[in-house]
Amino acid sequence: MIRTGISMLALASLLAAAPLGARDRDGEAAQAAPTAADAKAFVADAEAKLFAQGVVASRAEWVYETYITPDTEALTAREGAALTKLQVDLALGAAKFANVAGLDYDTSRKLGMLRNKIVLPAPVRAGAADELAALSAKITGMYGAGKGMLNGKPINGSDIEAAMGEERDPAKLKEMWVSWNDNVGAPMRPDYAKLVGIANEGAKGLGYADVGAMWRSGYDMDPDAFAAMTDKIWNDLKPLYVALHTYVRHKLNEKYGEAVQPAKGPIRADLLGNMWAQEWGNIYDIVAPAGSGSVGYDVGELLKAKGYDSHKMVKAGEGFYSSLGFKELPTRFWERSQFVKPADREVVCHASAWDIDNVDDLRIKMCIKVNADDFVTIHHELGHNYYQRAYNQQPALYLDGANDGFHEAIGDFIALSITPDYLVQIGLLDKSQVPSADKDTGLLLRQAMDKVAFLPFGLLVDKWRWGVFSGQIPTNGYQAGWDKLRLQYQGIVPPVARDETRFDPGAKFHIPATTPYTRYFLARVLQFQFYKAACDQAGWKGPLHRCSFYGNKEVGAKLDKMLQMGASKPWPDALQEFTGTREISGKAMAEYFAPLKKWLDQQNKGQPQGW
Ligand code: X8Z
Ligand code: ZN
């Protein structure tokens, strides 16, 4: 399959019945009614064609993203358009079997998948798929080659991302934030609006109200119930986020003063150590508990002190999976992956994982920096690769995660096991440096700054996109719609006024790349469900956040069973296989952070809550 970021085939919702049958049946009244055997043959043929074109499109996209030129852009657009045409053709063909009696389970499931798993559907009219693919390739390249400014000089995407984590001068933070959003986002606004129009036309042609409705229908459940489920999870965890927000705002106010960060109201978006304010772990030093309560080490500093480079960091990631019993990565992975940013050309630095031939041509594409963020991201990307390899025996339409949130959660769940004791085991931390139990608050706060802080962002990106696709956010209100959601959910504001000449959503990779984002919200809670289940399986009795299942082969074997299922069964079956429950919920995450919540509530006494 193509890289996970734009995986075009995934789990289908068997419940979604696109109302296409009548029109198509009328057109073919003279033909004999299709049988269950016809349906089975149709699916087999579809799988062969999708597999073949998927590999070609993947290769073209890989070359483009690792070497952005007008030629590679044209080549990937051509193969992307061919794949989309094939997918749309097959979706329309699959609809003809909707009412056939006697379909076996897999045929029925796969027919559903053929109909609702196109991320960016194109209308069938001549030229539409080509135009859509060209727009998509163009804005992905604009993002990849995009530059911000620091100290009056241009700075590329991966450097500016790292600098946002390290810089503490509010004027420089503002310079980077404004330049990145202005230079990268704004210029793609007209193309993005065109892309939305064409893809919506494509979704309507397949029987959906709009692209967002199509995306929501891919979760083995009613699409509205799916959206309601995500809202419920957010509402359950919101008090934890608000407590963190309140505490962090107070600390930022202490550090920067009223003129930069007022004590009340929203937080200024560029002060949180991340270009999108999506994870705040990089400013842990500003919020760390006073005195001896802090953690005492920083993973990035440890990696630097031990002389780690990108290769060694990836090796450490592989080592974790090997310790669980997973086969080591193939030689080709090391030969063909991109670990560092090439000096002589433009690339898409945003991290992704690929399985080019759907068998064993696994690769990651990153521009690795020796820091804590990228150490976690390496484990994240490898999670995709091990998942892809585990399910590679499945038929083509099942070569995917149980749902897209599962795919995003595997590596993160593994990375939750990067505890102080684990760092000692792999020689990164000295035994004498292991934080004692009185440092637990610091450890939890460091985690919360990344994990809890992300929740509202994880939810709002697709709230914005669903609104754009449905028309509820009009073309002339893209920026205002974005700012409103950022304030409502995250409680943050841009450092300077924005208007409709801007397009800040375009300065976030997943918007130009059209990677659905709710997956990351799901993954944020799922990873704690997986982690808790693994720690229970390992018989862990201590505080949850101190558990590492490194080296536990039983956990590895059980995980492998879930991964091997791919998309062959509805996701609750896969969840049950590993965790024993059939529901995605924030409970495990709330349990993990419960001691921190108590502490935050203490700290926040007398402070204004919320924004
Ligand atoms: O895009 C990613 C991965 C690639 S699938 C690096 N993530 C989201 C993001 O960076 O916005 C992982 C966390 C959220
Ligand atoms: Zn990912």
From TrEMBL:
The active site is at residues 381, 510. Gene3D superfamilies: 1.10.1370.30. GO terms for biological process: proteolysis. Zn(2+) 1 binds at residues 380, 384, 408. Keywords: Carboxypeptidase, Disulfide bond, Glycoprotein, Hydrolase, Metal-binding, Protease, Signal, Zinc. One of its GO terms (molecular function) is carboxypeptidase activity. Its EC number is 3.4.15.1. PANTHER family: ANGIOTENSIN-CONVERTING ENZYME. Pfam families: Peptidase_M2. Disulfide bonds join 349-367, 535-547. InterPro entries: Peptidase_M2. It is an enzyme of class 3 (hydrolase). The lineage of its organism: Bacteria, Pseudomonadati, Pseudomonadota, Alphaproteobacteria, Sphingomonadales. This is Peptidyl-dipeptidase A.
